[in-house]
Write a structure and sequence with these properties.
Double Stranded RNA Binding Domain; DNA polymerase, domain 1; four-stranded antiparallel beta sheet
């Protein structure tokens, strides 16, 4: 039997309940702890993919997430691995500043030490003209010696 929103609200008996999409079920631990799980097999490995807690994730949203995950499975991709990759790339982008942001922050920090305010503007203009077009949008650990030579050789 497929679940409805009204039934889910009143579930208190621990167990797994079918949610109407292949592999999707609601795991009830007690009245207040209910979790959406998508169970699937990849290779010879059975996996449980957590889709969220009920009632934060309603039945319709859980079904949509399950359909998207099943599409990935049909393409030969593991939804859990895809989520890990996405999360890792987001964390990596957040923790590593772009050169442009780092350079401008350095100039702003040093401005108070310079006698003339024009020096700060000169630094920023020089960076914009010669440096940012090449490495402005690169993360600091992505900058190579070749990048630096490409900037310095024309000057």
């Amino acid at each position: 039997m497929n679940l409805t929103d009204k039934q889910i609200q009143h579930l208190v008996v621990p167990g797994r309940y079918n949610a109407g999409i292949t592999g999707l079920h609601l795991r009830v631990i007690n009245k207040d702890k209910k979790y959406w799980i998508l169970r699937y097999t990849t290779g010879s490995k059975r996996r449980d993919y957590g889709l969220g807690k009920y009632p934060e994730i309603k039945l319709a949203e859980a079904r949509c997430k399950a359909v998207e995950a099943n599409k990935l499975l049909n393409e030969g991709k593991d939804p859990i691995e895809q989520k890990k990759r996405l999360t890792a790339s987001i964390k990596q982008d957040i923790s590593k500043p772009l050169f442009k942001d780092f350079a401008l922050a350095c100039v702003n920090k040093k401005k108070s030490e310079w006698r003339n305010e024009k020096h700060g503007d000169q630094w920023v203009n020089t960076l914009k003209q010669y440096v940012f077009p090449y490495i402005g949008n690169k993360h600091l650990d992505e900058i190579t010696t070749q990048d630096i030579l490409r900037i310095l050789n024309p000057i």
